Amino acid sequence: MVSGKYSALAGAVSREQAIANIANNLANVNTTGYKKMMVSFESILQGSKQTTDANGINYNRIRQTFTDFTPGPVKETGNSYDLAIHGTGFFKVLGPEGPLYTRNGAFHLDGNGALLTKNGYPVLSDNDTPIEIPQAGTSKISINSLGAISSLDEIGNREEVGQIALVNIDDPAKLKRRDNTLFELQQGTQEVPLIDPQIVSGGLEVSNVNMVDEMTRMIAGHRLYETYHKVLKGYSTISEQQDELGTVS
Fold this sequence. Notes:
Blueprint lengths: L1 H26 L9 E7 L4 H5 L7 E8 L6 E3 L6 E3 L4 E6 L2 E5 L5 E2 L5 E2 L21 E6 L4 E6 L4 E6 L2 E4 L6 E2 L4 E3 L6 E3 L5 E3 L1 E3 L5 H36 L3
Antiparallel strand pairs: 1-2, 3-17, 4-16, 5-6, 5-12, 6-14, 7-8, 9-10, 10-11, 12-15, 13-14
Helix pairs in contact: 1-3
């Protein structure tokens, strides 16, 4: 009986963790460039151990948390510094401890012409230096589908002034999430060239979270969580009755 109680407890704990993961996805349904987090479960006892060592009672836990990098829809904004990547790939920015990677292309210029993310991190060029766009004499800035930045002066002369770094990752599953939209490389993975990049200027990639799907998973998770609690309550009731029987003279 004790083994069954701990099995139900393990199930309740893992479902609680899964519900927290879903809640985080729902909280970021409107976050630009957010990639939803997923969980996978595993049984602690495998094969013959489940029947011979545990008499058919097993325990489950969350095996891993991983990121679904499926691209989200692109929303038009009309701001030339808002960028979205069609297909795979990442923008490269300079974080406090080194390069970071993101699909959030909501960029802006500061007073010195530096191209920055919303949280103030410099956007890197193809030679890994922060991008700075000359402001003197510039009447308009445009960014093409390859990430090349051009300035137009007051008399119509066009000049290329920068190239946004666009990279792919050989194994995105090994990226470590730093916050809701920023990732960093882990040991065993590296950048690879992004072949035929397609950048949309004046648009942003919205979250790839499907609210209906997440709500359905949330409801199912809560039902399972409640079921495990009912099982635990049942075991507690049985234990109390056993204790009472043990005191009968």
